[in-house]
Amino acid sequence: PPALPAPGVYQMSVSEAAVPGEEVGRVKAKDPDIGENGLVAYSIIDGDGMDMFEITTDYETQEGVVKLKKILDYETKKSYSLKVEAANVHIDPKFISNGPFKDTVTVKIAVEDADEPPVFLKPSYIFEVQENAASGTVVGKVHAKDPDAANSAIRYSIDRHTDLERYFVINAEDGNIKTIKALDREEMAWHNISVFAVEVHKQHQEAKVPIAIKVVDVNDNAPKFAAAYEAFLCENARSNQQFITISADDKDDSANGPRFIFSLPPEIIHNPNFTLRDNRDNTASVLVRRDGFSRQKQDLYLLPIVINDGGVPPLSSTNTLTIRVCACDGSGSLLSCNAEAYVLNAGLSTGALIAILACIVILLVIVVLFVTLKRQKKEPLIVFEEEDVRENIITYDDEGGGEEDTEAFDIATLQNPDGINGFIPRKDIKPEYHYLPRPGLRPAPNSVDVDDFINTRIQEADNDPTAPPYDSIQIYGYEGRGSVAGSLSSLESATTDSDLDYDYLQNWGPRFKKLADLYGSKDTFDDDS
């Protein structure tokens, strides 16, 4: 049979913070048998901890495992005692007389104190406070304690994430909750906040509890019309004819709201035009008191109506019903009211407005077309001017005498003596301002070098801001006033005896060799012969 070790007592300990299912300790019985005859099962048969602990068998190690069954509290009970029995699972009938095949042992379990957070006396709190209560009104009180043996002092605070508007404040020492400002039930009927409790010397140990605060309704809102009512009354209305039904609203709770009581003010209760009937279902009907109305005499009536809510204390308000007198057909359908007629007389008819808008649109279209056509007409001119920029082909019909014709013209006659001392303005266009040519670009008065003359004219044309942007023919028809060099005509020179010396023509280069031969000295001529 199995035998538990002497003296038959196991000592174990467990923290009060342990969770159910956590292992507390193990016991083991010795059995010399092998195989199935050596299997042992464990059970708790007695003790004050039978409800708090349990034991299971580990068949691999043949040990009994003691586990926590319920949460422990060191402050409530500090130790427990268990009586554990170990017995063979299989018993050979041949050896029953040798029994019993079991043994018992006592297990002592000590509960260790653990540092626990504060505990509130209730898992949640519900308080009530009247709306519009003065600041500092006590809402309720919460209480928490330290479950540890030290019983540390507790401090309270409100979680401001749950009271962003700061309606409440709590006393840190006694847990009393008070209002900071007046509450309005119509704005917020319930306030849900949370309160923290922490130990004074162990700030990391804290507890949190939810608190719901109900704002009790106070009759502080008078009833009023449920909508902005406007009634339309036919001119041919009959006495006691109902023409509108009204209702009311009240922001207060039903205890201070419906049922509503409708009535006319005492000063007009006997008015000759209208009367009021309370339907006793939070509505009222307005009726006509006399026959016939004339909108020419009076087209608008304002009827005051008093609404009482019957609350404690009762509140009432006076609301005004607007009644318009309208023209109706025989069946009572509205045709027109004075408000509409006045608008039509004071303004323009719909057809007239449409006609005016149509005329404005037509004028705008005409203006747009005119501008468009005007731009299209300008485009050909622009194209013509652009085409005019192109180079013009100028045909010259004058025939020259060839490269060797050096006597056909006098190059000096192309130079205007008036332009020697200044700028010669263009004759083909009207210049906007005068251009002063650069000094040093004018040819010498008696220069006859054609290349220099042409290059000078090209530079003047390139730098002249009044010159047109296209090629043009320049006509030089100025005859001049004569030349200081005299005539170079070979005809006149051949028939006139002159003592002039033309030997300098030999120095003018090959272009003037012909002239040098014709007008050179006789000695030179004879030598050549």
UniProtKB/TrEMBL annotation:
Record's keyword annotation contains Ribosomal protein: no
Physiological role: Cadherins are calcium-dependent cell adhesion proteins.
S-adenosyl-L-methionine among keywords: no
A GO BP annotation: cell morphogenesis
Record-annotated membrane-spanning stretches: 352-373
Pfam families, A to Z: CADH_Y-type_LIR, Cadherin
Principal location class: membrane
Species of the source: Cettia cetti
Gene behind this protein: Cdh11
Protein topology in the membrane: Single-pass type I membrane protein
Cadherin domain segment(s): 6-120, 121-225, 225-342
InterPro entries according to UniProt: Cadherin, Cadherin-like_dom, Cadherin-like_sf, Cadherin_CS, Cadherin_Y-type_LIR, Catenin-bd_sf
Compartment list: Cell membrane
Keyword annotations from UniProtKB, A to Z: Calcium, Cell adhesion, Cell membrane, Cleavage on pair of basic residues, Glycoprotein, Membrane, Metal-binding, Repeat, Signal, Transmembrane, Transmembrane helix
GO cellular component entries: adherens junction; catenin complex
MF (Gene Ontology): beta-catenin binding; cadherin binding; calcium ion binding
Gene3D superfamilies for the chain: Cadherins (2.60.40.60), TCF3-CBD (Catenin binding domain) (4.10.900.10)
Protein name per the record: CAD11 protein
